[in-house]
Structures are given as structure tokens and as C-alpha cells.
């Protein structure tokens, strides 16, 4: 028994010494702002910088990551729960060797798992934290009571909006609600589909002013991505736009955004400490 206990302690110590993946969730207040397209291309851009990336499609039943890359995934997260496959079994290799787990269909209670399934998910996910640099969750549009619990577990939240007034208001509303649940959550803001740099800056300023005035909260500005025909052409051809035309304005803007993110080129007062994803999962889902 002493040997087993000592081995367990050593395993735990080894886990602590390893570099654990950073977990990010990409969210939006409404659909149609390019959230999934951003998630996919952001993941690929990170991989181009030498990072090991897992993209997890959490828009269960309505996910479209596999459509955006033109590859039908044989398995999805549904098969993990319904057929007992492992998380590794259900992964698909994507562009630049990113790993992808698709959402599939027929699963509506991912956030209301039995304790047995939850424990199995936790155990296997723990292994993935040691195999990747980033695990990126592409969430469904908007938020639900259950998905909020999940969002509280990740290290960082990337909020996608566009200059449209409804998109700005919805993005603010999502941040307002999440802030009311946990004021310490860090928001990273991306304005997508801007026609001009000025339009993007004005949109970011409106959101920042509202956060400061009503929530006394600052968001980290990651940057803006221009409206560009390359994106729609790439979607039509089911190719990520950063692969379709790496020299386009939108691809260059995304790579610059990822460079800033990798280098954490924010204001000096910003620090983004990593949380403990698995401990947070137990806290918010199991209450312990």
C-alpha cells in the first residue's frame, strides 16, 4: 500500500511539473459574427507558431468546424459518451496538425452528465492537458445556465463581435452576465468584419466605455479583422481562409493578432494567470 501511495504521489508531482495546456473559450452574444471561423483559423495560426492545439467544437448539434475544413468526422463527442470511445479515438487531424473534436448531433445534455461519465471525461481530459499547449473551445452562440458553468472553468474568454449595433449590444450583455457571476474573468475582445480600421477602433471603444461605466471592468483588446472577400471564398471552398490565401489582409491581421496573443503584448498591468480547469470543473459541476 505504501508503494502504491508513493507512486500516486509521484504521478501527481510529475503532472504538476509538466506544462499544462491553456484553456480558452470563444464566445459571442449572437450567431452570424464569424465565431467558429475565427476559432478554426485562430487555432491554425497558433499551430503555425509551433503550438500544439486541440480545437473542441462545443456547439453540440449545430457545430460546423468539420464543414469549414471540408472533412466529415467519423466520430464526435457523442461517441465518447454513447459508445465509450476515448477522446483520442474521436479526434480528427486538421490543417497544420491541429486536433479537432466535433460536436456531432443528438447530444443535448453535455453539461448534465452522470457522475460516471463526468469522471471518465475528467480523467481523459487530464491527459490532454499534458499533450497540448492550447485547448480551444468553440462555444455555441449565446449562453445557457449550464454552459456558464463551463465558461467559468477556462483560463480566458475570447469575445467575438462585429460593428453591427445588435452584435455590440449582445457581446456586452454576455460579458455583463458573466461578470456578475465571476468579476475576475478575463475578457479578450476581437472585432470581426470591420470595413475600416477606424470602424473597428470605434466599435472597441464603445464596448470598452460601456464596460468601464457600468461594470468598472476592462477588456483586453486582441484586435480587429477586416471584412474580406477571401473569407467568403474560403468558406465556399471549405478551406480555412488562412490556408486559402495567407497573403490576404484578413490572414495577415489574424497572424498579427496571434503574435500579440502569444507575446502577451498587452498593457503592462495585464496579467493572465492560468487557472486549474479540472478543479474548476469539479467545483462548478459537482459542487466540490
UniProtKB/TrEMBL annotation:
Query: What GO cellular component entries does it have?
Result: cytoplasmic side of plasma membrane; cytosol
According to its UniProt entry, one GO biological process term is: negative regulation of cell division
Q: Which CDD domains match?
A: FlhG-like
Q: Which InterPro entries match?
A: FlhG (IPR033875), MinD_FleN (IPR025501), P-loop_NTPase (IPR027417), ParA/MinD_ATPase (IPR050625), YlxH/NBP35 (IPR033756)
Keywords on record: ATP-binding, Nucleotide-binding
Q: Which GO terms describe its molecular function?
A: ATP binding; ATP hydrolysis activity
Q: What is this protein called?
A: MinD/ParA family protein
Report the source organism.
Answer: Peribacillus asahii
Amino acid at each position: 500500500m505504501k508503494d502504491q501511495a508513493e507512486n500516486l504521489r509521484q504521478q501527481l508531482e510529475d503532472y504538476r511539473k509538466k506544462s499544462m495546456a491553456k484553456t480558452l473559450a470563444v464566445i459571442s452574444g449572437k450567431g452570424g459574427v464569424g465565431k467558429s471561423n475565427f476559432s478554426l483559423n485562430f487555432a491554425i495560426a497558433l499551430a503555425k507558431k509551433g503550438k500544439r492545439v486541440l480545437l473542441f467544437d462545443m456547439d453540440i448539434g449545430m457545430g460546423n468546424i468539420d464543414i469549414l475544413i471540408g472533412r466529415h468526422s467519423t466520430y464526435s463527442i457523442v461517441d465518447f459518451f454513447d459508445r465509450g470511445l476515448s477522446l483520442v479515438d474521436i479526434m480528427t487531424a486538421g490543417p497544420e496538425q491541429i486536433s479537432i473534436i466535433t460536436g456531432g448531433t443528438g447530444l443535448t445534455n453535455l453539461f448534465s452528465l452522470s457522475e460516471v461519465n463526468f469522471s471518465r471525461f475528467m480523467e481523459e481530459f487530464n491527459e490532454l492537458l499534458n499533450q497540448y499547449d492550447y485547448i480551444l473551445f468553440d462555444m455555441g452562440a449565446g449562453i445557457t445556465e449550464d454552459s456558464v458553468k463551463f465558461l467559468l472553468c477556462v483560463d480566458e474568454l475570447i469575445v467575438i463581435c462585429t460593428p453591427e449595433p445588435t452584435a455590440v449590444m449582445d457581446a456586452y450583455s454576455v460579458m455583463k452576465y458573466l461578470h456578475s457571476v465571476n468579476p475576475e474573468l478575463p475578457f479578450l475582445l476581437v472585432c470581426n468584419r470591420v470595413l475600416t480600421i477606424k470602424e473597428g477602433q470605434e466599435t472597441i471603444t464603445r464596448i470598452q466605455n460601456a464596460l468601464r461605466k457600468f461594470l468598472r471592468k476592462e477588456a483586453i483588446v486582441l484586435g480587429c479583422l477586416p471584412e474580406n472577400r477571401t473569407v467568403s471564398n474560403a468558406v465556399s471552398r471549405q478551406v480555412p481562409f488562412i490556408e486559402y490565401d495567407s497573403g490576404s489582409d484578413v490572414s495577415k491581421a489574424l497572424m498579427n493578432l496571434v503574435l500579440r496573443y502569444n507575446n502577451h503584448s498587452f498593457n503592462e498591468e495585464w496579467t493572465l494567470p492560468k487557472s486549474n480547469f479540472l478543479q474548476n470543473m469539479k467545483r462548478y459541476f459537482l459542487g466540490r
